[in-house]
Amino acid sequence: MKAKVLTLDADDAGEIDLKDEIFGLEPRTDIIQRVIVWQLAKRRAGTHKTKTRGEVNRTTKKVYRQKGTGSARHGARSAPQYVGGGKAMAPVVRSHAFDLPKKVRAAGLRYALSAKLRDSKIIVLDSASLGAVKTKTLAQRLGKLGDGHMLIVDGAFEENFTKSARNLAKVCLLPASGLNVYDVLRRDTLVLTKAAIASLEERLA
Question: Going from the N-terminus, what domains does the chain have, and what CATH number goes with each?
Answer without folding.
Answer: 2-45+97-203 (3.40.1370.10), 50-90 (no CATH)
